[in-house]
């Protein structure tokens, strides 16, 4: 599991590559997320969609309709299972944008970087620790950007909280909590059997929405790192049939997973995951610091904020005072264009800006694999009787090199 010994390749922290004035992009995977992302790119300057690739003709046709509606040139079209390899061999692609089945993410990302392409990949980027190390090794060796598309890091509330932390308003964050609670039973389990294998496991197969923004606020691999975790899932319980299928008969299902993480400096993080219970959507976000506390509750509503000078529990007042400058500049456009209240567009806008300017990315390959590593590690903890499991140091000792994330201009 640990790959920290005898490695001499320079790390890829604050990796900078030559500016790309016009970013030439291949979209691989045009399902729900891929089509949403393609729509974002219709509103970005300095991009050229060269390739669309999906196994299903109807998805490719819908993508072409999107391009035609925005008066864009129709790109080359691919539709076979291994066409992504041919795409990565092309010399007219700068960025491979991966929205395929989760099981393919690491393999495509690695192959793309090996052939000189930058990578943007949907979450999680890897399913095993072995895949995580291969992704890191390839990014370091090939000196290519590899970003996991964790859109929740660009949500309005999370960015405002990051702004709070950068100003020291709530002091040093000592504890954090995040979750991904989303009733997906009817949508995914009844109609998408490929989801079942990945999503219904004994651990947390989708940890990054809850974990990613918390790690940024807590300076993970920017002065601290995730050290170990303990994970527990509740027992299996019978669910009613969903469109003729009783999913509990086919899968190992702990409908709620709770994972506790301890950082090297002794801070704690709680991450929860549940996509199979009839509960309201909740992507909780909580930071507890030495000077204050901030929490977002169900449906992204402001729940409570307190610092040394008083309390705020009115959302408009909170944003008026602590809105992140990047969101203040671009948030109105993002909300008008992008899905998920604009955070998807904010993420894509920022990625292209950094590539065009030759800047380091806000989220790097170490973020991608560290957050994704919970997919395997939470299952290991449960399988071994809920014992602590070590989280590898994917930076190989360089976790204290970077300053706090400030979003380079």
Largest sheet: 9 strands, mixed
Beta-strand level of the residues, as a percent range?
Answer: 15-25%
User: Would you identify the regions where 5 or more consecutive residues have pLDDT less than 50?
Assistant: none
The total beta strand count reads 15
Structural class comes to alpha/beta
| Lateral arrangement of strands in the main beta sheet | 14-13-12-11-7-10-9-8-15
How many H/I helices? 14
Give the integer mean of the pLDDT values.
Answer: 89
* Estimated helix fraction: 25-40%
Topology pattern, helix = H, strand = E: EHEHEHEHEHEHEHHHEEEEEEEHHHHHE
| Cα separation of the termini | 37 Å
Tell me the Rg in angstroms. 21 Å
Q: Based on CA inertia axes, which overall geometry fits?
A: globular
């Amino acid at each position: 599991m640990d790959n920290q010994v005898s490695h001499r390749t320079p790390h890829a922290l604050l990796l900078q590559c030559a500016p790309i004035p016009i970013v030439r992009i291949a979209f691989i995977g045009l399902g729900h997320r891929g089509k949403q992302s393609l729509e974002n790119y219709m509103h970005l300057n300095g991009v050229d969609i060269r390739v669309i690739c999906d196994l299903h003709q109807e998805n490719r046709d819908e993508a072409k309709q999107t391009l035609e509606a925005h008066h864009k040139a129709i790109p080359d079209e691919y539709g076979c299972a291994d066409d992504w390899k041919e795409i990565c061999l092309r010399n007219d692609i700068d960025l491979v944008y991966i929205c395929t089945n989760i099981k393919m993410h690491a393999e495509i990302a690695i192959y793309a970087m090996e052939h000189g392409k930058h990578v943007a990949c949907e979450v999680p980027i890897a399913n095993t620790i072995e895949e995580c190390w291969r992704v890191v090794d390839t990014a370091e060796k090939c000196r290519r950007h590899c970003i996991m598309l964790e859109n929740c890091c660009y949500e309005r509330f999370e960015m405002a909280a990051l702004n709070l932390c950068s100003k020291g308003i709530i002091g040093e964050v000592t504890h954090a909590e995040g979750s991904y609670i989303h009733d997906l039973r009817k949508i995914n389990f009844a109609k998408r059997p490929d989801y079942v294998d990945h999503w219904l496991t004994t651990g947390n197969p989708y940890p990054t929405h809850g974990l990613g923004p918390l790690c940024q606020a807590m300076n993970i691999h920017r002065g601290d790192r995730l050290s170990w975790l303990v994970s527990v899932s509740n027992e299996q319980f019978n669910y009613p049939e969903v469109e003729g299928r009783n999913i509990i008969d086919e899968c190992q299902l702990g409908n709620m997973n709770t994972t506790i993480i301890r950082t090297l400096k002794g801070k704690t993080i709680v991450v929860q995951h549940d996509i199979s219970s009839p509960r309201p959507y909740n992507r909780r976000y909580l930071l507890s610091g030495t000077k204050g506390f901030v929490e977002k509750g169900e449906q992204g509503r402001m729940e409570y904020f307190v610092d040394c000078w008083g309390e705020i529990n009115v959302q408009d007042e909170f944003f008026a005072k602590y809105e992140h400058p990047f969101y203040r500049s671009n948030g109105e456009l993002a909300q008008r264009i992008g899905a998920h209240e604009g955070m998807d567009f904010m993420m894509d806008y920022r990625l292209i800006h950094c590539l065009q300017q030759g800047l380091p990315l806000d989220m790097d390959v170490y973020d991608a694999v560290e957050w994704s590593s919970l997919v395997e590690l939470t299952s290991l903890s449960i399988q071994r009787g809920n014992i602590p499991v070590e989280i590898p140091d994917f930076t190989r000792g360089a976790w204290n090199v970077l300053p706090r994330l400030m979003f380079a201009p």
